Each structure stands twice: as C-alpha cells, then as structure tokens.
Amino acid sequence: MANGIASELYTPFFSSSLFFVLILYMAYSKIFSGDLPELLNEIIQYFHHDYKTLHSCILVNRLWCRLAIPLLWEDPFSIPTLNCRFIDIYLSYLNEDCKLKLNEYGINNNLFPSNTFFNYPSFIQHLDTRKISNSIENWVAQLSYSIQNNNLQITNFTKLIYSSLFLIFIENEVKLRSLEVSLLSHQVCEYFDEAFELILKNPNFICDIKNLKLDFIITAETITKLLLFLNSNCNSISSLYFLFPSYYNNYPINEKSLSQIIDSQENLKKILLGYNNFPLYHSLLSLKNSNCSNTLNTIVFYYIDFNNIIVFNEVFNQLNVLESIHIIYCHSLDIKFIQQIINITKPFKLKSLFLNELLNIESLKLLIQKFGNNLEDFGICISNITDKSQQLIQLFESVLKYCQKIKFLYLPVGLNNQNINLLFNLIDNIKQNLNYLRIDALDYDNHFSSNILQNLGKILPLKLEYLNLGLVINNYGNDLEVFLKNSQNTFIKKLLIRNKKEDESDDIFPYIREYIMKKKRVKYLAILETIDEKCEDLFSLKDKVKELELYDIQVLYYYNLYIDIYCFVKENYLQ
C-alpha cells in the first residue's frame, strides 16, 4: 500500500540519518509505552514541514502512512517541487461532465489515476491563490499537448483547471483553515473570479478560516465583493494580514470594509497591516471598538507610513492583552510618532524593529531606550548608508547599550574600518541569544569584506540557525579560510554566502570542502556568486552538490534558503 501511495504522489526519497534515528526511537517506545499511535502522531507532527521526512514516513507501514499523508496533502501547492502531479490526482475526482471539458483541450482521461488510496481533496487546509496559479501554470507547461501553441487556449485552460480545483474542494465539503488571496495581476484576478463565484454559492468552504491574508495591488470589482462577503460570513479569524497599497482606487471604501471585518471578529489575536500611506483611521479605531480589545495580542506594521497617524494612544490603551508590536521598514518614525508610542500606558513589547530610513536619530534612541530590553529582531536596510555613518554609529551605540536579547540581526556595513568594531562589539554582546545573522557588504570594496572575515569568526556563538554573508571575497588574502578556521566551533544550520567575485579565477569551494564539508559544520548550504552581472548558484553544479551530500550537507538554491524579513516575522509571530 505505502509503495503505491508513493508512486501516486511524487518520486519517493528517504531523508537523512534523522529519519533512521526516529525509527530506532519508535522501536524503543514500543517496548516501554502502550500509547504508540498517539506518540507516533506527536512525533510525525513535529516534522510538519519537513516534506522529505514525511515522504519517507509513508513508505514504512500503514500506520505511518495514515499519519503522514494528511500533512503532505494539507497544502501541496506550497511544497517545493518541479513535479505537479498532485494536480492529476485532484482532477481524477471530477465528474464525467467536467472531464469532458478537459477532453476538449486534448486531455485524455488516462492522465488521471483510476483509483486512489485516500480522499486526498478532503485533507486540504491551506490555499494560497498565487501558489495555486503558479502550480497550475507549471503543470500546464509540462503537458505536451497542442494547447501550448495557443496563448488564448492556455489561458482558458488554466482558468478551467483553477475553477475545477476549487469545485473539487467544495464538493468534498472541505472547510479551509487558512486562505491567502493574492491578486497581483489582472490575469491572476481572472483566474480567481470564477472560483470566487463558487465560493459565494458555498460560504461554508471558508466560513471557519482562522488565518486570512489579503494582498491586492490591482483594481477589481471582485475585491470589493470579497471584502463584503468576508465581513458577512467569516467571524472566527484569529490572524489577519492586510497588504493594500494606498494608491489603489477604491482604497477609502475598502479600508472601511477592512474595519468592518475587524469589528465582526470574535477572536482576532494577530493582525498585520502593510503597504499604506493613508492614516488607517478606520482600521486602527476598529481595534479598540471591537472584541479585539480583549483578544488582540500582536500587531505588525509593514511598510506603513506613520505620518499624521495620531490615534495610537487612544487605540493601544484600550488593548488589554496586547503583548507585542513589530515595525518593519515603516516610514515617518519621527518624534511625533515615537512620542505617542512611548506615552502608551498599557504594557507591551516592541519585539521587531527593521529600519529603512534614519529621520531623527535622537527619537530613535528614545525608542530603543524605552523598548530595547525586549527587542528580539533588529535590522537596517538603507540606501546611501555611508552618508549617514555618524547617525549609524549613534544608533549602534544605543542598541549596544540597551538591547541584550536580539535573536535576529541584519546589518549592512556602512561603517568605515575605523568604526566597524562597533558591529563586532554588538554581535559579541548579544551572541548568547543571537540565532539569525545577516551581514551585507556587497556594495562596498573588498576591504570591508576582508575586515569582516578576519574578525567575525572569533565572536560567533556556538550555534546559529542562520548565517547569511553578502561579501566581496578575495582569495589572495585567504580571508574566507581565516573566517572558517576561527568559526570551526560554531555549528550553522543554514549557511548562505553571496559572493561578488572580482576575478573569474577565484574559487572558494576548496575552503568549503576543507572546513565545512569534512568537518560537517553545516546542515544546509547555499552559495550564489556573481561577476559582471552573471550569476552562478552552487545548486546548479551537480558534481559539487553530490560531493556535499556524501557528508550529509544539503545544498539548496540560494533564494530557497534565503529568509525574507516579512516571512520571518510572519512565521514566528503570526502563525
């Protein structure tokens, strides 16, 4: 049975030694515990997003298979794979009339499996419209039918597959847990239109969603209708993400609709507001006037312009269980905004602060002085940062003085060599808690990179979850070798190196082989090298990838391993 399921999913593969440790652990547990199924379920849940291990689990026996399959199929559109065969399996659930429509595009029924071991559509829990579109487009591209020669046919066929998938989920009486509606192009909006008509007729499909993300940059009637529908039918949302540019034509209407959605919620705990230059008057006030006052514990501001927002005291002082706020690349962090935040009487923590401008360094220092003790994520991404070196030095000094608990640190190198010791002092000061570190020196000459490589390895903690270095590595000075020697006692789960090569003949792989591969100091590795606007990703060098795999080091595409700040905050504070 298990082998059959593997064949109807993807090409099967086994994970590394961790999986075999799990087998031994389960054998041990069977001897000493009578609750093996419950214990096994807890352990498999631990590997929720470790798809390689989950695929291995389905090959063990029936019990393991029954526990792992629902996890693999709750959101297959998000599993990174070049093979979209799961769409074939979904389409096999269409009735004969719907299959006839596919036949008109040259799709033979032999494409679909005749029998399946599980009711796979019933497991779906999460849907992201963007990922659905991408998966369908990849699936269509793999077909060798005549539709590929006609753009109109391809578009119509893609729309048909899109709506067919939603029909399958609805007919299987699925109740989604998470829905992400990303309408970032008119074509994607066209795909979604027909699916949305199905949702309108079947509100139970999304009435119990707990996580809702709305991300729009286009004008469409569908968006207004969707917001009204959500307001009337969904009142159990616990996490709400609203990414909505203020240049959107219907913004005033839809901002009021958002406030109505907030008002209608009974258990809203987390909210993200993003990409907005308007005062967010209705949305913010709805936080204090609704049930949110006793449920909301987390607020994330993402690319928000705080200019002319004057209701923070009024709103925040009514939020009785607020635990943390997160400010990510927002604008107008001036004295008026910061004074409002400082004057809020209700206790809360500023856990994330990522800056893309330095307006008033004195006000920022006040903010860090007030909230620095609980700050966990800090970063700077500012253009022309060398012009602000004195302000940057003052900011670093303030962070060094007040922030001891930073776990995620993102730093550009805008200091000169004389003052770069501030950066090293900061890392050394927080290394007891530091778990994610990104340093970007790509826009500077190799002297900055050399200084970093010569000194960074000596101050790293014993373990890092994530280290991302954007550098100009010069082989002649053996700087990378010095760094790897100095950091040989540090285990790095995910190591990313982006190297701006100055010479085509430069090769850093011998150092990778000697100090990373042979010493097994890294679990996941990604290297992206550029020279003269040409890029080479280590993942594309199959011989080197195989060599690293012999030492249990998994090589990934650089941008697959790269951690985006927005995704980091979302996964750590909004799930």
Q: How does this model look, in words?
A:
- The chain is α/β, with parallel strands linked by helices.
- It has a domain at 1-73.
- The chain is built from 24 helices and 16 strands.
- A hairpin with a 2-residue loop joins strand 14 and strand 15 (534-537).
- The longest helix is centred in the N-terminal third of the chain and has 21 residues, at 151-171.
- This is F-box domain-containing protein.
What's the SSE blueprint?
Elements: H1 2-9, H2 17-32, H3 36-46, H4 51-57, H5 62-73, H6 86-91, H7 96-103, E1 126-128, H8 129-142, H9 151-171, E2 178-183, H10 186-201, E3 211-216, H11 221-233, E4 239-243, H12 251-263, E5 270-276, H13 281-289, E6 298-304, H14 312-316, E7 324-328, H15 335-342, E8 349-355, H16 361-371, E9 377-380, H17 389-402, E10 408-412, H18 421-430, E11 436-440, H19 446-456, E12 463-471, H20 479-486, E13 491-500, H21 509-517, E14 522-531, E15 534-537, H22 542-549, E16 554-555, H23 558-561, H24 565-573
Parallel strand pairs: 1-2, 2-3, 3-4, 4-5, 5-6, 6-7, 7-8, 8-9, 9-10, 10-11, 11-12, 12-13, 13-14, 14-16
Antiparallel strand pairs: 14-15
